[in-house]
Amino acid sequence: MKRLLFIAFPVLVSFALFGQNYHENHEVFGINKEAPHAHLFPFENETLALNGQMEDSKWFQSLNGYWKFNWVKNPQLRPIGFFQEEFDDKEWELFPVPANWEVHGYGYPISLDEKYRCETQWPDGSDEYSPVG
Fold first, then answer.
1. Which of 45, 75, 77, 80 lies closest to 59, judged by CA?
2. Residue 67, strand partner residues
């Protein structure tokens, strides 16, 4: 009996965890996320390294600029497969990076001194409004 419980318990726990949407699981902090590491930058020579200006290196690439952007009001409406090279994003807007999407007209800003526009009980979030962009 103990052996059966020893095997069945992890299986039941995994069903409970994986049956839940990943964005509702408070134990999920990132999917396909790199492990944290010290900030470093490989300069091509010692002079540039001593100067310390990453932007002067031929290996530096800024991510600032305009990116294709798609906003939806909940995860169920997100485009599936958007990360694949053949995905058609022609209808997507160009969005300035870095930026905050609420300031640029997507959704509405929520300040810490005001109530959320939906009533929820943790850990259940709103299925109706939980924006993804």
1. 45
2. 95
Q: Tokens representing 60?
A: 């530096």
Long-range contacts of 117-122 (CB under 8 A, 24+ apart): none
Sign of torsion over alpha carbons 12, 13, 16, 21: negative
Which residue is associated with the tokens 């599936």?
Answer: 80
Task: Give the whole-angstrom CA distance, residue 12 versus residue 6.
Answer: 11
**pLDDT tens, N- to C-terminus, the chain (133 residues):** 555 444 545 544 454 545 557 667 778 777 888 888 888 889 999 999 999 999 999 999 999 999 999 999 988 899 999 889 999 999 999 999 999 999 999 988 776 666 666 666 766 767 778 888 8
CA triple 27-28-30, angle to 5 deg = 150
